[in-house]
Amino acid sequence: MRSPHLRVAIVLLLAVALVAVFLRNVDLAAVGRQILHASPMWLAFSLLTMLVNLAIRAWRWQYLLEPIGHTRFGPAFRATAVGFAASAVLPGRAGEVIRPYFLSRQQQNITATGAFATVILERLLDMVAVLTLLAVYVAFFAPAPDATNEVAFRAVKWGGTVAGAAAIVGLGVLFLLAGNPARLAESLARLEAVLPSTLAGLLARVAEKFATGLGAVRRPGRLAVSLLLSFPLWLSIAAGIWAVAVAFHLAVPFAGSFLVIALLTVGVAVPTPGAVGGFHEAFRVAATTFFGAAEAAAVGAAIVLHLFTVGPSLLLGLLFAAHEGLNLSRMRTLAEKADTEGTV
Q1: Rounded Cα distance, 168 and 123, in Å
Q2: Contacts of 151 (CB under 8 A, 6+ apart)
Q3: Cα(66)–Cα(118) distance, rounded to whole angstroms?
Q4: Where is pLDDT greater, at 189 or 138?
Q5: Which of 204-213, 227-236, 297-306 bottoms out in mean pLDDT, i.e. has the lowest?
Q6: DSSP for 232-292?
Q7: Closest CA relative to residue 21, chosen from 281, 297, 272
Q8: CB 118 within 8 A of CB 344
């Protein structure tokens, strides 16, 4: 069993290391001046887009949950905010566990395990949408690479191809799991021959609920609509990134934010609380390598964009969680328990 304290220590050390890399050789006074002189109007617009994409996430999740039970928008929005708040302050992907749990507390007809299955499906849909936007940028908007970023462009194209293949394989696996939840449960129930009957029965029940939660995969029309809903979500995120770039006078066109999103997706994959460090360094690399931004402006924009990305959901999520009597200590306990047991 992994020690949660050791894991937290490793994650925090990783965050510190990434922040150190992000701030290396940077004139902090110049960064401060860049932040002070950023356009308030464009920053306000960016902040608004963060609230919009949070609402679209809740709307899409509500649609994905429909096959396992009707869900109101309000509970879906609150659970989404709480999940993102948990991910912002706890290491790992705690929010992915907390979000379905919080929703199941508010909607008795939704199981946490079934809702967790839709969270995994969301991530695959997000990957497909992000890679599609990246392909659009590379095919129609990307300037010819020069000697300074040719290798970086090649790496982005290769990484996008590999990630796209992984997303397709992942969707295929989920389709197979979702095909017949009852049959999956029966197959796992046969484990009673080699496992204690209580454990085998538990695995069978969890697997059936999980597969039932993938109901959208069994309905091509519903899955297609869910994918379509992913594009306004990511376009609103792109608009927020672009607005911050404009506020800091970075030469990032709107379509260029599609490339920035792809690199930020890599940065936030590092499991630090709130993607601290990974997010910042990914944005700095994107702005300086592909769009020729000055270091101070890129660093200042990364700091503000991260604050806008995390801030609204963090404030709303903590407020909603407190209203339900769920504090950070309880969130941490739930996340550690799910990680240890492999269930939610």
Answers
A1: 12
A2: none
A3: 10
A4: 138
A5: 204-213
A6: HHHHHHHHHHHHHHHHTT----TTHHHHHHHHHHHHHTS-SGGGTTHHHHHHHHHHHHHH-
A7: 281
A8: no
Q: From CA 166, how far away is CA 77, in angstroms rounded?
A: 29
Residues 6 or more apart whose Cβ sits within 8 Å of residue 288: 294, 295, 298
Q: Identify the sign of the CA torsion 328, 329, 330, 335.
A: positive
List pLDDT tens digits, range 249-283. Answer: 999 999 999 999 999 998 888 888 888 889 999 99
> Structure pTM?
0.83
How far is residue 200's CA from residue 210's CA, in Å, rounded to a whole number?
A: 15
Give residue-wise pLDDT tens across range 183-201: 555 554 554 454 444 444 4
Q: Are 228 and 220 in contact (CB under 8 A)?
A: no
- Spatial contact of 156 and 198, defined as CB atoms under 8 Å apart: no
Q: How far apart, in whole angstroms, are the C-alpha atoms of residue 47 and residue 55?
A: 13
Instruction: Give me 265's structure tokens.
Output: 């997706």
Q: What are phi and psi of 5, to 5 degrees?
A: -70, -40
Please state, in angstroms and rounded to a whole number, the distance separating the CA atoms of residues 91 and 93.
Answer: 7
Coil vs helix vs strand at 226: helix
The number of angstroms, rounded, from the C-alpha of 299 to the middle of its chain's C-alpha atoms is: 22
- 344 pLDDT above the threshold of 50: no
Cα gap 338→325, rounded to integer Å: 19
Residue appearing with tokens 């020069």: 146
Residue 254 DSSP code: T
**In the chain, what are the domain boundaries?**
4-341
